[in-house]
Amino acid sequence: MKQETMKVLVYHEPGKISLDDAPVPKILKSTDAIVKVTLSTICGSDIHIIGGHAGVQPPHILGHEFCGEIIELGSAINNFKIGDRVAISCVAFCGECFYCKQGLHYHCTDQDCTCFGTNRPNGPSLSGCQAEFVRLPYASNYMHKIPEGFTEEDMLFVGDILSTGYFGCEQVHIQPGESVLIIGAGPVGMCSALTAKLWGPAQIIIVDLDQSRLDVCLREGIADIALNPADVDIIKNVRELTNGRGADRVIEAIGSETTLQTALRAVRIGGSVCTVGSYAKPVTLPLNTYWVKNITLSMGFVPVDRLPELIKLIQAGKINTKFLMTHKAPLNDIIKGYDVFGNKKDDCLKWVITPYDR
Ligand SMILES: [Zn+2]
Ligand SMILES: [Zn+2]
Q1: Interatomic CA distance for residues 118 and 127, integer angstroms
Q2: Which residue(s) pair with 19 in the sheet?
Q3: Is the pLDDT of residue 192 over 90?
């Protein structure tokens, strides 16, 4: 018998979430697909959402980082089949509007498109992947078959944190032999560190207050030097490591005034900074002291057209993100997952969600 209801994680009000029942989604348009979520995660931005900082209007089904198996396809989709296992971008997009054509898919103006697990006031709303099933509008634009011989575990992060980390590296234009400083050794900072290597920098320096995360970076070989601001002066150390100049390229992966200021102080004259952090509060910057450094500062929401490239890099063995999966449990345990991941308990890097255990 076909399943009529499913379990979903619902955000009810700031600080309040619960595992509820909801109808299984149906195909609404010929360009839709329905996937059974085979693997998903809790993301740092979900923590922002339940903190009431992201403008998501409750009640809403959360989750935007996932892989799935196609169980239903709209009649207009002919390059996929039922049973295909797919990696999915965190943003749904139409592919036709002004912003889609500019590669700014998050800003797609189609009323059916936004980031999964979010909504905008009087705008689009998409149910998330912390659920048993998800409806994907314009699915063939952004779901990608998982190559033969690879699993959901290999590809889980391509649609969100790995794309974001990679975007940070692309934005700062790393040249071979340069020094790259990454501020924040959370999952996104780690994804920046492991993709920065693709450009052949001389050294990757990573900064975080959490020593266990720094230890992971060194153990996994994704950074050459780890600095903890609780123990050392970051600016002084970075200068010493870079002939007194400062880092050529800096990626800020936290999203706070303090860390963004550290980034702007630590970058060398003429260097570049990209912030991929997710900001919960306004930031004040003393541009009167920074403007003279000729720094390029960029920022942005995850681009979602790099998935094919990232999947190929994983296939080629150039990137491996499996070490981020420190915790794994079925959807049944997701409330505990929010506590452990959200409060950084038990050295949790990523809480990975397997299907609901019925
Ligand atoms: Zn995310
Ligand atoms: Zn669009």
Answers
A1: 7
A2: 9
A3: yes
* pLDDT tens, position by position, 132-164: 999 999 999 999 999 999 999 999 999 999 999
Pairwise CA distance, residues 323 & 191, whole Å: 11
Please state the separation of Cα 147 from the chain's center in Å. 21
Question: From ligand 1's centre to the CA of 236, what distance in Å?
Answer: 33
Structure tokens at 264: 């702007």
How far is ligand 1, taken at its centre, from the CA of residue 303, in Å?
A: 12
Tens-digit pLDDT profile for residues 261-276: 999 999 999 999 999 9
One-character DSSP codes across 309-343: HHHHHHHTTS---GGG--EEEEGGGHHHHHHHHHT
Contact partners, residue 227, CB within 8 Å, separation at least 6? 205, 206, 207, 214, 234, 237, 238
Q: Are 166 and 194 in contact (CB under 8 A)?
A: no
CA of 162 to the centre of ligand 1 (A): 10
Task: List, in order of start, the domains of the chain with CATH numbers.
Answer: 5-160+303-354 (3.90.180.10), 164-299 (3.40.50.720)
